[in-house]
Specification:
heterodimer, A: alpha+beta, 6-stranded mixed β-sheet, 5-stranded antiparallel β-sheet, 8 helices, 20 strands, about 35% strand, globular, B: mainly alpha, MetI-like fold, 2 domains
């Protein structure tokens, strides 16, 4: 089966600046695929290249096996949901949704039927005659999705469409987007800098940094098995300890850092003497216990979040180490400045090239 | 009569205007629930009084009174100075009557010359406004949505610079370009497109070109301001949904820019209809433009009351026409003033 979208050695340059560097990947049919990265990493440029608003400097984009080079955005089987949604303010909800059909010359009766179906899909059946400005933020989102789905695209492209919503609504819309995607079954390509969004919604995630893909995988791969230091520190919270590898034994290695010698899994088979960083997730740090690796310092800050508490320890070298506590320990944290110790297992730590 | 009973009226009016503006400032409507300082508290009493006096003076002496005098004058007969205020100085419709029926000594029942000139002026001004819109829209769109900021600044400079030359000089330059031995005819003859010079001036082509050019900036700026506020993502969204370029312009950009289009067309229409320099300089021997006729009422016929009546007719016609068009386009005056 051909990939829904195939990006082949894509490079995009703006003058001297290279926004996207030699990116190749394949997005499967019916997949919810996310590009995750900090702002300026090139993810929006890739999206604009797929939708046709950005000419590639080099490389090819194929949609459904067809080379898209020289095909304008209005001729591509894609639909884009803009960051600010870009709904047409002078048109009603129904006119917005029907715009793509009107452009295609679909007869009015057929158009009305289709718009009715879509209004149903987004649970706004009785709001078709409303003005856009009369809708709430979440309703506008859904109208934008319906407007894009109306033209029956093979691929739906979403450019951080949830970023303007408040937290509760954002979480609600994540579920809704996922549900809509399952119902319509088309490929979704989602752009975000919010790793929570990427992890909860996506089948696969491409983590991007400085115009390059750092890692492609599902949420668990990216979170639990990061392949680069950037992925380890960008996706989720992480404690990083930089240093030099001093000993390698089996799949483990020892690294000399400013807080002492620590051991972790040597996933990248680094050799002795290599510069590396050891990563431990805060939730894998144990507070007040002894283990294979031990860290001592003074309590600096306790951020209480109800279900969890993020306890920050100041290590002797001045760096901060965070442990996420749940259950009883989360309610009995030490006072600021008192001596504390953290421990973690070697199998919970990952050593990656610096 | 103004001359006898008018003096107290004239002295009372400024006081009245001041009182009106003072009351407006005092009872300025405030948004509910917002504790906003009053006009006097915001500006301080001396500044507030100055502002009220200045605005009242401006509105009254620069705008309202001169127009009122013109309107009043248009209803008075033409009399030698000694008879003004005398028994013959009675309000009359004779100046308006003249516009429609002409002089009593004329053999025509209707004053066709003036009426024709009047309607031709309105029609031609409308065409100039539409032509200007067609000419300026692509450029305004390019500047507002497509061009880079540096390019926009350069284009604005190019647009503004020719207007440093005064209107009459520009009109004469057009006359030279369009004359039978002028640049355009020489080029056409030289290239062999025509065997004899085209009479641009006699056919009023020079006049329309001159009028269009004279008020182009009004159109450009109105359109540019309106189109510039359109979110570019809207255009991209329409394109992404499959719209061809003409559909985007007809159904996204132009509806959005409608207030700006109305404002630009109104300005160009009004200014063209009231333009004097271009018709005088560029009008051909057979040209019928209303403003030169109006000008002649004042300075050739020395009939100021009649000139005032003509000016008032033109003003009234233009304003009603513009209001009618706005009504048809479902626009309010407030919208086009944005």
């Amino acid at each position: 089966m051909t990939a829904a979208v195939e990006i082949d050695h894509l490079t995009v340059q703006f003058g001297l600046f290279t926004a996207v560097k030699d990116v190749s990947l394949q997005i499967r049919q019916g997949e919810f695929f996310s590009f995750l990265g900090p702002s300026g990493c090139g993810k929006t440029t890739i999206l604009r290249a797929i939708s046709g608003f950005q000419e590639p400097t080099q490389g090819t984009i194929r949609i459904g096996g067809q080379d898209m080079n020289g095909i304008g955005p209005n001729q591509r089987p894609t639909a884009l949901i803009f960051q600010n949604l870009a709904l047409f303010p002078l048109m009603t909800v129904a006119e917005n949704i029907g715009y793509g059909l009107r452009v295609r010359g679909v007869p009015k009766a057929e158009r009305d039927r289709k718009v009715g179906e879509l209004l149903n899909l987004i649970a706004l059946s009785d709001q078709g005659n409303k003005k856009i400005e009369e809708l709430s933020g979440g309703q506008k989102q859904r109208v934008a999705i319906a407007r894009a789905l109306a033209v029956e695209p093979k691929v739906l492209l979403l450019d951080e469409p949830l970023s303007a919503l408040d937290l509760k609504l954002r979480q609600h819309m994540r579920n809704e987007l996922r549900a809509i995607q399952r119902r319509v079954g088309i490929t979704f390509i989602y752009i975000t800098h919010d790793q929570g969004e990427a992890l909860t919604m996506s089948d696969r995630i491409a983590v991007m940094n400085r115009g390059k893909i750092e890692q492609i995988g599902n949420g668990r791969d990216v979170y639990e098995h990061p392949q680069t230091s950037f992925v380890a520190s960008f996706v989720g919270e992480n404690n990083g300890f930089s240093g030099t590898i001093t000993k390698v034994s089996g799949d483990q290695a020892e690294i000399e850092t400013s807080v002492g010698r620590l051991t972790g899994l040597n996933k990248k088979s680094l050799a002795v003497g290599a510069k590396a960083t050891l990563f431990v997730r805060p939730e894998l740090m144990r507070f007040g216990a002894q283990g294979e690796n031990n860290l001592a310092g003074s309590a600096a800050d306790a951020a209480y979040e109800g279900m969890t508490t993020h306890l920050t320890m100041k290590a002797p070298d001045g760096s901060s180490v965070v442990a996420t506590l749940t259950g009883a320990p989360a309610r009995e944290f030490p006072s600021e400045g008192s001596a504390v110790s953290f421990a973690f297992s070697t199998s919970d730590a990952i050593i990656l090239p610096a | 009569m103004l001359s006898s009973t008018g003096h107290p009226f004239i002295f009372l009016l400024p006081v009245l205007a001041f009182v009106i503006f003072w009351v407006m400032a005092k009872f300025e409507p405030k948004p509910v629930g917002v504790t906003k300082k009053s006009f006097f508290e915001r500006n301080g009493t001396p500044v507030a009084i100055y502002l009220i006096v200045a605005v009242a003076f401006w509105a009254l002496f620069m705008i309202v009174l001169p127009q009122l005098f013109m309107v009043e004058m248009s209803f008075r007969p033409k009399l030698p100075p000694v008879e003004m205020g005398g028994p013959k100085d009675l309000y009359t419709f004779e100046n308006y009557h003249y516009f429609i029926y002409g002089s009593t000594t004329s053999s025509d029942a209707i004053n066709w010359v003036h009426i024709k000139a009047f309607f031709l002026t309105i029609l031609a001004s409308l065409l100039v406004a539409l032509f200007n819109f067609a000419l300026c829209y692509p450029l305004a769109y390019y500047m507002a949505q497509a061009a880079r900021p540096a390019r926009v600044r350069f284009l604005l400079l190019l647009l503004i610079a020719p207007y440093w030359v005064n209107e009459i000089l520009r009109a004469f330059a057009f006359r030279i370009i369009f004359s039978s031995g002028g640049l355009i005819n020489k080029m056409l003859l030289g290239a062999g497109f025509v065997d004899q010079p085209i009479d641009f001036i006699g056919n009023d082509i020079a006049l329309y070109a001159g009028l269009g050019y004279a008020y182009m900036l009004m159109m450009i700026f109105s359109l540019y301001n309106a189109i510039e506020t359109l979110d570019h993502a809207q255009i991209e969204a329409a394109r992404d949904l499959g719209a061809p370029w003409w559909h985007i312009h007809s159904f996204i950009v132009i509806p959005f820019a409608k207030p700006g289009i109305a404002s630009g067309c109104t300005l160009v229409f009004m200014l063209s209809a009231g333009s004097l320099a271009a018709p005088l300089v560029l009008g051909g021997p057979r040209s019928l433009w209303f403003t030169p006729i109006l000008y002649d009422r004042f300075f050739q016929a020395f009939n100021w009351p009649q000139g005032a009546a003509y000016a008032f007719i033109l003003l009234l016609a233009c304003v009603s026409f513009v209001l009618l068009v706005l009504r048809l386009g479902r626009l309010s005056l407030g919208e086009i003033a944005k």
